[in-house]
Each structure stands twice: as structure tokens, then as C-alpha cells.
Write a structure and sequence with these properties.
single chain, about 250 residues, alpha/beta, Rossmann fold
């Protein structure tokens, strides 16, 4: 168990590597690396920060995901949340999940998140949304609390704090898998109950027949998993574009 109470289940680090050739670029912000990709119009006005799962920003699936956000009109920045220490594609027998988590708690990760958001705002990103997968989901929720992010989307979070859900002040879309052993049905119902109390627009969608990690590492040979992954991505795009158009205004703001 990590310093923030979360754990890594085997399903957080397993899945299928997808085919494709990422076309984004790398740069450094305050000493850590980010992967970024500009949209077809080359604008940075409307942006998405992609907070990855434990596999990190260099994992091919995550880079392809970032490229897809860019293809849909967003300037995408995907930071290395682990400073070169992401969980490897093939986990060795000696890998210690608990030790890894101890090295990547909020104290180590939040300075990276803050630096990325500040850098993007400083360089003309007017609308900044957060898309978080597994490990990265909780940071989307935390930065919806103070307006640092304008809208959020999370897929199969590996852990969340009740206060994170209760304190959000911007719209949040949540997608989950029916057979998720980490973000279980009980967790989904708990989160929905908490989100209802906030008065903030939210959406909760459950896809049948899929497990934890489906939105990033689905089996490309299984039509049900591919459908769920593609629909979850489309939800993120439509959620962001709707709140971009409406200015993320809602009753009580």
C-alpha cells in the first residue's frame, strides 16, 4: 500500500499493447519530461492534460491515446508522473508494487501536476481539461477542486478519496468496467452518491463485459473490449467539447 492508501493490483499493470506509431514530441518542464501533440489547427487554446496509468507517458498505448485527443482538436500534454520510473511493460519477478507506490505518492506527484498546469496556463491554454486513467484519475479529481482544471474525465480509477469527490467544483465524467476488481460496483455507487451531493454536473457510465484498464489496454481481438474503449474515449471528447462550449457554467457556480 502506498503513502496515500492506494494499491496496485496485477490488473493495473497488465493488458495488451496496441499497434500504431505515435507522432507526438517530447520536451522538459521543470526537469521532468512531457509528451505533447498539437491539434490539426496548431492551436493551444483548448487543451487536455493526460494523467496516465502506472505504465507512464512513454507507454505506446498512452501516446496513441494522447495523439487521438489531439486529432479531435485539443492540444495534449502528457507528463511523466514518475520521473522515469513508470512500471515497465513486462514486470519482473523482483518488482515491488508497494515500494514503487511509496516512491510515487502525492508528495512526489503533485508538484509535477501543478507545474504542468501553470506552464500551460502561462502559454495561452484557455480551457484545460484533465483526462485521468487508473493512477492518474485521482489527480484529475483533486485539481477540479480549485478550478485549476475546467472539466474532468476519469476511467477506471485505482483509488479515490471521498473528500476528492465531495470537493470537486467542475464537471466530471466517470467510466468504469462491469468486472473491475479495483473500482468495484460498490466503489462506483459510493462515488455516485458523493457526486450527487456536490451540485456539479457529472456522468457515470458502466461498460459490461470489461475489466480494469479497458480504456487503455483492451484486447484488440475482442470486439466488446474495443467497443467499450472507443465509446469511453468518445465520451471524453464529447464531455470536454460540451463544457468548452458552455463555459463549464452550472447551477451554484
Amino acid at each position: 500500500m502506498g503513502p496515500d492508501g492506494e494499491t496496485i493490483s496485477p490488473c493495473c499493470t497488465t493488458g495488451h499493447l496496441h499497434e500504431g506509431h505515435p507522432t507526438g514530441s517530447y520536451r522538459y518542464i521543470d526537469g521532468f519530461q512531457v509528451y505533447y501533440k498539437r491539434p490539426p489547427n496548431n492551436s493551444s487554446e483548448n487543451a487536455v492534460i493526460l494523467f496516465t496509468d502506472a505504465m507512464g507517458h512513454a507507454y505506446r498505448n498512452n501516446r496513441l491515446l494522447a495523439d487521438n485527443f489531439a486529432a479531435n482538436g485539443f492540444f495534449v500534454v502528457m507528463p511523466d508522473l514518475f520521473r522515469g520510473d513508470a512500471v515497465p511493460d513486462i514486470v519482473s519477478a523482483g518488482f515491488s508494487a508497494s515500494k514503487w507506490l511509496m516512491s510515487h505518492g502525492s508528495q512526489q506527484t503533485e508538484p509535477i501536476v501543478r507545474a504542468v498546469i501553470e506552464e500551460m496556463r502561462k502559454h495561452g491554454c484557455r480551457f484545460v481539461a484533465g483526462a485521468g486513467y487508473c493512477f492518474g484519475a485521482k489527480y484529475v479529481m483533486r485539481y477540479l477542486q480549485d478550478g485549476a482544471l475546467d472539466a474532468g474525465f476519469i476511467a477506471h480509477p485505482n483509488w479515490f478519496d471521498s473528500d476528492d469527490a465531495l470537493c470537486i467544483k467542475k464537471p466530471l465524467c466517470v467510466v468504469a468496467g462491469e468486472n473491475d476488481e479495483v473500482f468495484t460496483g460498490q466503489h462506483r455507487r459510493q462515488m455516485e452518491k458523493l457526486l450527487k451531493t456536490t451540485g456539479v454536473p457529472y456522468q457515470m457510465t458502466v461498460y459490461s463485459g470489461v475489466q480494469h484498464g479497458f480504456a487503455v489496454r483492451c484486447d484488440p481481438k475482442k470486439a466488446t473490449e474495443v467497443f467499450a474503449k472507443e465509446q469511453a474515449f468518445n465520451q471524453a471528447i464529447q464531455w470536454f467539447k460540451f463544457h468548452l462550449k458552455t463555459g463549464t457554467r452550472f447551477v451554484g457556480q
